[in-house]
Design a protein that fits this description.
The structure holds two protein chains of two kinds. Chain A starts with a helix and ends in a 17-residue tail after the last strand. Helices cover 55% and strands 15% of the residues of chain A. The longest helix of chain A has 66 residues. A five-stranded mixed beta sheet of chain A has the order 6-8-9-11-10. A four-stranded antiparallel beta sheet of chain A has the order 2-1-4-3. Chain A is built from eleven helices and eleven strands. Chain B has a five-stranded parallel beta sheet with strand order 2-1-3-4-5, with helices on both faces. A four-stranded antiparallel beta sheet of chain B has the order 6-7-8-9, with helices on one face. In chain B, β3, α3 and β4 form a beta-alpha-beta unit. Chain B is 41% helix and 21% strand. By secondary structure, chain B is of the alpha/beta class. The chains are: A alpha+beta, B alpha/beta.
Chain lengths: 490, 231
Amino acid sequence: MKSLLRNPFISILLRHLAAVFSVAVTTLILKPIEPYLEIQLITLLYLLPVILSTVFWGLTPGVLAGFLAFLSFNYFFIQPYFTFQVHKTQDLITLIIFLIVSVVMSQLIGQAREGVRLARSREWEATRMYELISALASLQETNSIAQALANHTQETFQSNRVEVAIGNGSGGLAVTAVAPNNSDQFSTPPFFNLPLKTARGQEGVMRLWQASAQLSAQEIRLLEAYTSQGALSLERIRLAKSENKARVLEESDQLKSSLLNSVSHELRSPLAAIKASVSSLRSGAVDWNIAAREDLLATIEEETDHLNLLVGNLLDMSRIESGAMKPQKKWNAIGEIVAGVATKMHKQLQDHLLEIDFAQNLPLVPTDYVMMEQVFTNLISNSVKYAPVNTTIELKANVDSDFMHVQVSNHSPSVPVEHLERIFDKFHRVTAADRITGTGLGLSICKGIIEAHGGRIWAENQPEHFVFHFTLPLSLDGVLPKYPQETIDE
Amino acid sequence: MNKDPVILVIDDEPQILRALKTILIANHFQVAAATTGEQGMALAVAQPPDMIILDLTLPDMDGIQVCEQIREWSRVPIIVLSVRDNEKDKVAALDKGADDYLTKPFGIEELLARIRVGLRHSDQSQGANKRNIKAGPVTIDLASHIVTRDGNELRLTVTEFKLLSYLAAHPDRVLTHQAILTQVWGFAELDHVEYLRVYIGQLRKKLESNPDEPQILLTEPGIGYRFRTTE
């Protein structure tokens, strides 16, 4: 029924029928009481259905009602009755005036009514527009903009389904938003296909499925305004993003050049030592004794290892920064990793005591063995560097709800609070005089690895201790390890 | 009479070739050199070497491919040398038949030790299998299933013994997780590295004098385990 009323042809027909009906009713009421009424009063009363029709059903039903009223009045109330003939001149004048009055009046009322209607619909349009604009203004993401646009359009135009599809700039589809949320896909093509255009070109498209294919010119205008608002918002965030990107690029450029300075310095120092040692050994000018030769050769080997470590660290750092650091998580025993590290670092650890104090029956942790080995190596070698000789470096591990909590504590001097977080930055040294050999990358690599594992790393000053903490999630994709069951049965 | 063993080095970097040649000849090996995979394989056919040292990055083909193709007709020990430091490549090389893996740069002592292990292993595989394996204070009698440490018999579970004997039967060689899991637990348990972690932990507690610094059951990070008999 509602859809029938929405059909414009039927609606016009009904409105005119209503006008006819109102005149008929008036005639039916007036005819029986005619003897009690003056003819002038009847004329005035006949104006009622005309006004009524104009006000409620519009200009043409009003004019129609005017003519009908004029004819009925002539037919039923002017003598001779039941003919359209007019005998008295006075009656003729009455009739003509009636016709003029009813037509002019219905015209005036109709115009006023149309004006009110227009004003109302403009107000509605403006309100809707305002709502959309204020909704879009605060959004920063493409998908939320698409969703807001789809929702508002659906609400405003009472569409069955609205789709907003936004491209990713390279021909592909980045985002699709649908309103209402769970509406079914239509097999029919959309009634409207509106492009979302920005200065850069078409960003996307909005598709509407309506119950009726008809939208008024005004509604179409509003719809177009909607799409251009949506496009503007897309452009706004794109500009904001590119500005942001430019800033980040600039910052990373600065970072890169300082990194390059740092790296070339770090690389050249061991190279200088190697070059000096080798060229000394090869020059025939001095006859090196055995101890001196040994010393020079040891320098060469140590510095080569140092260079190798540095290159490895740089590679790791670039992997972490490019997001290519993907841990190959397998079930590993922290104790086994630490044991391997302790064995390898035997020589480095000769002036310190490594104390391993792990809780009994620690669960296996999903980790990348090699990466975790590096974390422990870096944390222990950092401790060796800064802690006084003959002190202990203590390793602790225990389960803390869903995480393994590991601590590496040493007796190195405390780090000023403002540096506690920054020690995990690349090439960050607590003091300028801190030229203890190292790559300046160890801790930032630890941070990268632990974070790639889904854990957290931090440092803490404790009385007489400096402690590195890190956590590792205990489950792998929500699963815990499967332990084999066996007892001695021989 | 004993001839010096022949080592075929396949590496496209002239500096490495030059250094290896000098060092190996000084250590009483004969050296044949190839700079491409094709050339290397041709040389291996023409004059079968006692050992091959193979670089993974070759100009004409991948070293892992060379390894695979040589394995089709020869059991010659292959040591892979590479700058590639990721475990996937190492495991792939070992699975395709390489006997050992060293990452560049390496210490020459390490390389010489691996060469000796490789040559000894190939001697053994030609002779009778050893029944008794000694590693430090530990002796494993593969036939009678008896494991002793400093003369005292150790009590091992069936799986522990199975694991230990598999490792000990390939002394000083890297065995990948997958190889061990398939051998000891069967193909179905291929992915359960956690079993291995648990059992290696148990074995270390029984075998090693200090389980926190293992000397016999060594972890090859990200790859597998090595049963070490030499100091």
